Structure formats: structure tokens, C-alpha cells
Amino acid sequence: MDVRALVFDVFGTVVDWRGGVAREVRRLLGPAVDAEALADDWRGRYVPSMQRVRSGDLPWTPLDALHRASLDDVLADAGRADVGPDVREELVLAWHRLDAWPDVLPGLTRLRRSFVLAPLSNGNVALQVDLARRSGLPWDCVLGAEVVRHYKPDPEVYDSAAQLLAVPPSSVVMVAAHVDDLAAARARGLRTAYVHRPAEFGGRVVPPSADPDADWSVDSVEELADRLGA
Amino acid sequence: MDVRALVFDVFGTVVDWRGGVAREVRRLLGPAVDAEALADDWRGRYVPSMQRVRSGDLPWTPLDALHRASLDDVLADAGRADVGPDVREELVLAWHRLDAWPDVLPGLTRLRRSFVLAPLSNGNVALQVDLARRSGLPWDCVLGAEVVRHYKPDPEVYDSAAQLLAVPPSSVVMVAAHVDDLAAARARGLRTAYVHRPAEFGGRVVPPSADPDADWSVDSVEELADRLGA
């Protein structure tokens, strides 16, 4: 199997969005807010907001702007319509300040010796740059939704990974903690690796321990490096 | 002056295309070919080949494919129509195997502590990834022609740098050894830094020692780091 590149889902797979957003919510809104519930609510509006772009209802809109728009509803529903515009802008940047799961940096560092690595996320380029700088993620480039102006699971996103890296789709491994992302990648000819992230949703939802349709199912990026001989 | 990001022209500014292409030509075609003359001839067809895309005469075509097409003419004119297709493919990869000028890695390493860094080149993404891995260039992401499907000096390329990095154009510095690239960037509101590269054309053409219209004119990326306090 001629693996040349690994492309990664980021929110949930590489970084802990729930813990990071909740931390920033506490910092900016104080202890009276249920920060985890707010993070969950905000994240719950993620797929519907992208769906409006995917369906053509909205023109191309980067994720930061979708987060900014959905935040107004989140705060209204949390009884915090009083939060001012500057704090709202700062809250959007919570998504740029998420920490990587502990296995990510050692795993990527090993994988990068043998493979080209890139995020293939719905997060915009500036957000990916901020996350990478925060955690020292050794990406070779930033691929994903904003580069191709389509949101996953649109096929254009997966196709763009192989095209821009100039390798066959079967040489690219999509790495994700979400079976739907992997299924969409597989439909475009990419290999797939499932990473089990039981803490992504704080225990509210427990993801499956493995994806039977994936080429690899692992519990960490370090285990993926083991399995790929990196 | 609020500088947030530096984006770099690559061929000539970051890497020595002439020396690298000539080295690969010698390796693949042997000593009977004038390798530097072949490199110069190939490079001479670069702007006209991109112009066919810029004018709409050709659909979007990545630089590797333009290099592959112009190589046929280069070899025919050099009396080497005998060169087989596998060697031609390998010759195209010469442009992925160029070495950085000696000041580049130390300069970028310093600049990266304070600024976001990215190539903004007409070379395709896979080519930039190969160059970065070869020389250890610490880019935060890969921007440029292929991401936006326009060749410099089309304004879309310069505009995309600020848009994708989510900063104002005036916070982005275009760094190049070519005054026309800098003039086009300046017309889109970017700051500009000129790097004097007297060896780019092997002494055939001597570029000006400074660009009076640039915000900075320097002799190396290290000097640029000095000037920006990095």
C-alpha cells in the first residue's frame, strides 16, 4: 500500500474543541455560564450552518463567520444577549485556541518523517495556522474547505487533497474521529483511518470504538504511526 | 506598522532555480548538454506559458504541467528530442529539488517567531511542499497561484494572501527579488520587501541593488529579520 500523505480532520480528531471552547467561555463570560453546555450548543449549530453554504442558500462563507453568526443565537438562548460585540469577536477566536490531544504532537512528529501531513478541515486557513502555531503541529501545508470553497462532506474537499498534493487518491489517508467524514473520503477513493476519541463530546455521546469500514482503527495518532511503521 | 504576515516569492527569492535545475539536467542528461543554458531557456518560457493561462487561452493548469509542456520545446531546441518520457517527467521534478539560498533558513527561522510565513508563488502546492521539506522551510501554510487558480501578477493571488490569513492587506509583506511582483502586490495594498539576488541569473542579468518603491530593500532574509526586529 503506497501511502504518501495523511490528511486530518481537526475538530475532535486533532484538537479538543469542547474543552478549549468551554475554557474560553469561562474566561470571557465568567463562572455563571454553563461553559460546556454553551460549547455543545455552539457546536450543534455547526453542521446546519455549513449546510446553508453547501446547499447554495449562502455564498461561500468561512467558518469564522459562520461561528460568529451562530454565536448570536447561542448567547440569546443562554440568556446572555447582553454580551457586547468585542467579546463576541473574542469568543469566535476560542476556536483558534484549542489544544491538541496529548498523543497528536508525538504522533505527527513521527508520521512526518515518512509522509506529507496536512489538515483537511472545515476550519478556515487562518484558524488552522493559529491552531498549528499553538500546539506546534508540523503540517506541510494547509488544505481543506476554505482552499476549495466547499465544506466537507462535499466531494470537492476530498478530491482537492489528492489534486493539490499531486498524488493518486489511494495514496492519501483521511484521518478522522467521525465515521461520516471517513465514509465521504472513502467514496472519493481515499484510504481511511479512524481515531477513537471517547472524550470529544464529554461523555454525552460515546463514539464507536472502531470503524469496521476504515483501513485502520486506532486509539491515538501515535498508534497510527505504529501501524504505518513510522 | 502592524506587520502580521510575510509572503514570499519562491523561484529566485527563496531558492536558486538556475543552479538546481542545471544540476538536475547534468545528472539526467549528462555532461554534453549546456545545463545552465538549458535552465535559462526553460525559465525563459515560464512567463509566456503562464500568460496563456492568465489570458484564458488555456484553462487553469498547474506549473508542473506548464513546465512539462515547455520542456518539449526546450529539448527540441537543444537537439535532445531523443530524451524519453520518463526522463522528461523526472526533469520536471528538478523544480521540486531546488536549494534555498544560504540566508533563507536562518532568516525564516527568526521571522517565524513574530510573523506568519507562507510562500506566495506560482509554483504548485506539491512543489512548494517538496521545496519546504528539502530545505526545512518553516512555512505556516502554502498560499499562492494554485490555491486561487490564478498566476501572479493577477490581483487575485495577492488578494488571497490577506483573505486566507484573515488580516488586512497592509499587514502582509510581499517579499520578492523581482520589482514587478512587488509592484503588483503594492497595487493590492500589500507592504513590500525587495531582496537583492545578484546570482539569480548567473550574472547574465544583474538585478537592481534596491527597489526604491519597496518598504524595505535588503540583501538577505536575515537582513530582513534584522530590519523587522525579529
From TrEMBL, chains A, B:
Question: Does the record carry Isomerase as a key word?
Answer: no
Q: Which family does it belong to?
A: Belongs to the HAD-like hydrolase superfamily. S-2-haloalkanoic acid dehalogenase family.
The protein's organism comes out as Geodermatophilus pulveris
Q: What is this protein called?
A: 2-haloacid dehalogenase
GO MF annotation: an example: hydrolase activity, acting on acid halide bonds, in C-halide compounds
Q: Does the keyword Hydrolase apply?
A: yes
InterPro entries, sorted: 2-HAD (IPR006328), HAD-like_sf (IPR036412), HAD-SF_hydro_IA (IPR006439), HAD_sf (IPR023214), PGP-like_dom2 (IPR023198), S-2-haloacid_dehalogenase (IPR051540)
Going by the UniProt record, its keywords in alphabetical order are: Hydrolase
